[in-house]
Write a structure and sequence with these properties.
This protein is an all-alpha fold. The protein is built from ten helices and two strands. It has a two-stranded antiparallel ribbon with strand order 1-2. Helix 3 packs across helix 7 (197-224) and helix 7 (197-224) runs parallel beside helix 10. The longest helix has 31 residues, at 52-82. It is globular, with a radius of gyration of 20 Å. The relative contact order is 0.08.
Length: 296
């Protein structure tokens, strides 16, 4: 909680200082960190005997934090990576040298509406958890997940244009596009099929959150490490890691319909995901640590 509180303070301090013009959805980072702090306290209360704190803390920490961070950074960065916005992801300049605002009032208002709706989705779920196994509680929990899925789909369709093949070339862009589809599918699976929510959560986490993070980490490593972007175009490691991670996700989801082989499929799923992560790490971790780069 202290770590997240410090990050939240640091973010808000830099936000007020105005050292840069921030993307319109960047305040999502503050929402995510705030949910993280609340989630830690909820889990702490659960440890002291408050049973609803377990589910509330899990929703805030394990879904709210990564979703807000991905949305906050990704609305501008992912859009640029896909090729729908050629503008630099961040306009970092001294405040006095900002010649014009690249974020229009309409964009800012729409981003704030996204943020309010997404945050409301998590708060409504918390209230539904407090109501327990009642009709009202179940209704609020389902409604909150639909709201979250709808907001993220709104951004994915309007800003990321996931219904179209991205104009930028390369394997990294292609696998980012796939990961965004998987992320949206995971959110809707959790929302519309609450009885199988655990399997939708694996779609969201194993195939959505994790692979989006790997893809963004790849771009950050290549850009800030000065390695150029050749690896983004045709690296076999990106393709192989993506295939294995999505195979692991699929194996975990379909384990539910194979009860006799359930535990075995859990092992297959974990193995596929781990090997995919190892392949990515083998190529990109040396570049992160500034060691001798390995072939892709």
């Amino acid at each position: 909680a202290l770590g997240r509180s410090y990050l939240l303070y640091f973010f808000l301090h830099r936000r007020r200082a105005g050292f840069m013009e921030l993307p319109e959805h960047f305040d999502f980072i503050a929402y995510g960190l705030g949910l993280g702090v609340a989630g830690v306290f909820a889990r702490g209360a659960w440890a002291l005997g408050w049973e609803p704190g377990r589910a509330i803390g899990a929703a805030f920490l394990f879904q709210g934090v990564p979703l807000f961070l991905i949305m906050g950074v990704g609305v501008r960065l992912v859009t640029a990576l896909l090729g729908w916005n050629k503008q630099a992801p961040l306009q970092i300049q001294p405040t006095g040298q900002l010649q014009k605002k690249s974020v229009t009032p309409g964009q800012l208002a729409r981003a704030r509406m996204h943020g309010v709706l997404l945050l409301a989705g998590f708060l409504i779920e918390a209230f539904g958890i407090l109501l327990g196994e009642t009709f009202a509680g179940e209704f609020l929990r389902i409604a909150s997940r639909i709201v979250r899925a709808a907001v993220c789909t709104w951004v994915a369709v309007e800003t990321w244009k996931i219904y179209r093949r991205p104009p930028n070339p390369g394997r990294l862009v292609f696998w980012l596009w796939i990961a965004l589809w998987v992320l949206a599918a995971g959110l809707w699976t959790i929302a519309l099929f609450p009885a199988t929510g655990i399997h939708g959560a694996h779609v969201l986490f194993a195939g959505g959150f994790s692979w989006v993070v790997f893809v963004i980490a790849t771009r950050v490593t290549l850009a800030h490490g000065g390695y150029g972007f050749k690896l983004e175009l045709g690296a076999k490691s990106i393709r192989n890691a993506g295939v294995l991670i999505l195979l692991g996700m699929s194996t975990r989801v379909f384990a539910a319909i194979l009860p006799r082989l359930y535990m075995r499929h859990l092992g297959y799923a974990g193995l596929c995901w781990a090997v995919g992560a190892i392949i990515w790490s083998w190529v990109f971790l040396p570049r992160i640590l500034k060691l001798a780069p390995r072939d892709s």
